[in-house]
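Memo to structure team: turn this sequence into structure tokens by end of day. - J.P.
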Amino acid sequence: MTVMFGILSIMAVGGGSSPAAAFVAPSSGGNTSLKRHRHSLPPGPFPEATTRRQSTMYFRDDDTFDAIGALRPQERERPSDFQGRMKNIVKQNRRRSNAMNRPKNVKTATSLEEFAEVIEEGRREGKLVVVRFVATWCKLCHSLRPIFDKAASSNPEAIFVDVPVLETNSNLHQGLGVESVPFGHIYHPDKGLVEETKLSRKSFAEFEELVRMYCA
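Reply from structure team:
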């Protein structure tokens, strides 16, 4: 639909005369609902001016264009490319800061070899190994991270490990029977794998209680 926009009249009001408006016919047919708005403008720059200018404008109901051809409202509200880049930088810095502030007994294993080394470290040092299988696209995994780190701080004698899902380590998850994330494992230094369960906000308290029980 062609945008119908026209200025009916711009006239000077003075001497008690009443404003008159002449309708400007649209260039194409069709029923387009129009709104009529009157805008009073300040006095002109001439000395001792007592007249005011008055204009009558018509535009579409959806108000995608204003009377002076300004940007559409949705374009005015859209953040700039600079703002988007700055937000991404802040998010990246926050993630790096969170990674640096994690407890010392929290590790990350991204391959089968690294995972095996952590399990062997727990067996050799007589420490419990608590594993959390996660994914970067998993919102629940991100939301559980603070309480996972808190559990690590509360149990410094255990080793806590995050194992992210990557294209290069799919054999690790498949070999351990991990079909969904977040998923938890608990490895005892003498008995091996003793617990495996899906993790959620509701079940994590019970999972942490098992950690404390095996650490005792």
